[in-house]
UniProtKB/TrEMBL annotation:
It comes from Coffea arabica. GO terms for biological process: response to cold; response to heat; response to salt stress; response to water deprivation. InterPro entries: Annexin, Annexin_repeat, Annexin_sf. The gene is LOC113691504. PROSITE patterns: ANNEXIN_2. SUPFAM superfamilies: Annexin (SSF47874). One of its GO terms (cellular component) is cytoplasm. It comes from the Eukaryota. GO terms for molecular function: calcium ion binding; calcium-dependent phospholipid binding; phosphatidylserine binding. The keyword Protease does not apply. Keywords: Annexin, Calcium, Calcium/phospholipid-binding, Repeat. This is Annexin D8 isoform X2. Signal peptide: none annotated. Pfam families: Annexin (PF00191).
Amino acid sequence: MCVLLFSCNVVRIAEKVMAWSSCNCESICKEIHDSWGQPAHLIQHLAGLTQLECRKTRETYVKIYGEDPAQLLLQSSESSSQGTGVSQRTYAALSMMMVNPHERDAIVAREAFEQNDTVNYKALIEIFTCRKSSHVLLIQAAYHAKYKRQLDQDIISIEPSHPYQRILMALSASHKALQADASQHIARCDAMRLYQAGEGKPGAVDEAVLLEILSKRSILQLRLTFSAYKHIFGHTYTASLKNEKSGEFEDALRVVVTCICNPPKYYAETLYACIKGTATDKGALVRVIMSRAEVDMNEIQKVFKKKYGVELMIAMSESLPSGDYGELVLALATKTCRVPDGSV
């Protein structure tokens, strides 16, 4: 029954997508304005909007009512945490929907540093591996504007030092480097260097070589390099990291390489961990759904079904709590069409 109710509500939202896409922003803003305090109605009005429509709606709302709906939703989230009975997560997610993708990533990045006892490295890795360099620069600018801090410096300042931290520093440097066209010659040369720095020698992976390559190559070039590695040596680079020599750096590197080479696989595995309750990153579910909606959610769903034998929507329907938050997450997961954004 729970799955059926979820499905019916999501279908109703999905049916409105085409209507909303041609709807006047002013009428949407009025519907939103009249729905404050009613999260179910807000979801009906907002969940079917594309990212571009959300941004236009936000701008129009500010012009008409003189208030920022993203900020109002954030304030509702904060008040709901004080006992109003409305899901804090629902309002927080709706607020994140209303901001630009690079602003959203800047917020995610800052929250990654504000975990209780550790840094949320995977949230940061997703930003630096699955966004174009132009988008990363916008994220860094938004981070500085909002928090008066430098994202790169915050990564450098992490204590104690961690393999993910060192990889992030390298990836950050790569986005600042001159981005030349991907080269097969460079890919083959780097693949040979990876082999010589890893399984081609005794002992652990030569961290310095890996970090140098990560810091000097674009994400597209790195994908070509890891593809060349498989072609030359007959197995994936991540497979070479699964041995008795594997340590913290190799474990982190394996996650990063998967995120670079096969984002749908990485995200499918992340969502599965969230659904099964084994993920320590409690915000990963809505973060992944929101960042990959309109990008590659259809590919993620295909990988999920093939790997786990169940449809992603069904798995989420069975695991999410009933109510507004679950309906919102499922509605976002239906946004599978590809549109231009900052992802790679």
